[in-house]
Amino acid sequence: MSSRACPQALYTSASRTLEGPGFGVYAHSADWPAEVGRTRKALGALVGFRPADGEAYGVLFRGTGRVLYRAVAARADGFGRPGNYLVHLLWDASGRLGARELLALRRAGRFLDALPEDSSPTAELPPLRVAAADRAAPALTPDEVDALTPPLAGLLATLARGAGSCALPVRTASGREVAEVLVAVLPRALTAGVSLQAGTREDDGDTAPVRVQLTDSPAPAAAGPHDTERARTLLEAASKGELAPDDLADLRRLDAWLFADAWAEQDAAALSADQVASVLESSAAPGWLARRSNAAVALEAAAGSPAVEAALRAAVDRWPAVAELVRGRVLAALLDEVFDGAEGPAEFFVEVAGIGQRDLCAALADEVRRGRRVDRLDRAAGLLVEQALTLGVDLPLLGLTGETWELALLATRRPVVGDALVAQWRSGGGWTAEHGALLGHLLVADPGWLARLGDAVPVSALPAALRWAALRLDVAGVGALAEAVATGDGAGRGWALREVVFGSELPPGDVDQVLGRRLELLLVDDGWPRELAESFARSRGDSPFRRRRRAD
């Protein structure tokens, strides 16, 4: 934070002020904000002070700005009367200055104790340039850590509530100034919403969420065990020269800095959601997630905790090892859903892991190549297979699943699957029982597969596959398959009649129905001369020529 030029104002009792003799605004910068006030009446409680107080100082919130002030007893006023006092006020329109700068200005003597010699009332008082206060770890003895723990715990408890007032002692019994130590050990961002006031407190219009009052006799603060643990750990770290980073803006992030290493020694199941988030934000995250079930527990916690979700996403972005671990677990769960029908991960997990459709398809292909089989090729699995092939993923179809009939239907109904199956079939290294089983199902699904596969099917494998398919077809199906055999590359061997029609074991009437429609074609396939086959079919009244004449 660079230095800032802060308008200033002086209030006292003098023979001459901008408001006349007596108490009033003696001087102010030209750009002193009117909304804060340029008269005694407008400034109100900001300039209220009793000399018996000795000194009062503070930083107060006014809208988006801050008022830093100090009031001290002064020598007799311009009329020679006792009881005079001087209030020195600064205005920070940026709202960036805070208790740390207030105490640094006071410590450096930059607040006035009296009016400068030979000064006169003015509305042109130059602004005071204020820089960000330096921060150094306070050297603390064990006794001082003990004495400072309760007031710091009380302030931390108020910060945890997000609003309220907290009374702190001005000094410890040993004389250590409490506020000086606390603003040094606490991160600037954490105290950004805290005002501070020492001396008599009146209704000064302070709008800070958390107000701290320094007093000689503070009431005991209501702090819980964790607040006390936080406070002691912070002070002990400061005594070793370690200060929490100034950008820690909330207590959970402070806890991450304080305790993450200790929590990382525990399993995720034993931690709260905030503790899990703290570990994920620490450098221990990669190793911790790799242990036992921590990654699974962290993923589940992320689904119900915005803090864990944000920390997990940040860890995935920050560490490649974490990204790979989370990705691997979620991808494994997705594959279990595809192959085994297990309950799959929520879409939220998939999104956090950054897994896309192509990633899943490629992983599916790898698993199939390793020998894993899809238990149930349902609609969802079928769509994934189709998507993989559409994306150009080299997914083995032979060996994809034990549900051969479902694979045959998928290849028949989905052109991209059918085309891939033909290509893989033709480029395969040999014929296996799996080829034979799938061929039978394909022929049941559509006899057109016979022509589509063509010479990719060994001739010796056809009879068994034809008979197996024929046994599972109805009359129309047997007829269509017999015609496909009789007109295909394997025609002329008689398999249309012997393996399909007669191998179907249909009732005689159904067989006669098939023969009646295709007898001449089937006889030619069985080796009969065409003329003889036509003559025989005509004698049965089944010649296609005869049927045409009847139609005429």
Please give a structural write-up.
The protein has 552 residues and is an alpha+beta fold. The protein folds into four domains: 134 residues; 86 residues, no CATH class; 78 residues, no CATH class; 109 residues, no CATH class. Helix content is 48%, strand content 11%. The strands form two sheets. Strands 3-2-6-5-4-9-10-8 form an eight-stranded mixed beta sheet, with helices on one face. The protein has a two-stranded antiparallel sheet with strand order 1-7. It is rod-shaped, with a radius of gyration of 44 Å. The C terminus is likely disordered.
What are its keywords?
disordered C terminus, 552 residues, 10 strands, alpha+beta, eight-stranded mixed sheet
Number of strands: 10
Gyration radius (Cα, Å) is: 44 Å
DSSP helical segment count: 24
> What's the mean pLDDT score?
89
Category by helix and strand content? alpha+beta
Which regions are unreliable across 5 or more consecutive residues at pLDDT < 50?
Answer: 542-552
Q: What number of domains?
A: 4
Helix content: 40-55%
Distance between the termini: 103 Å
Main pleated sheet: 8 strands, mixed
GO molecular function, one term: kinase activity
Keywords: Kinase, Transferase
Domain GTPase-associated protein 1 N-terminal: 7-128
Protein name: Putative CheA signal transduction histidine kinase
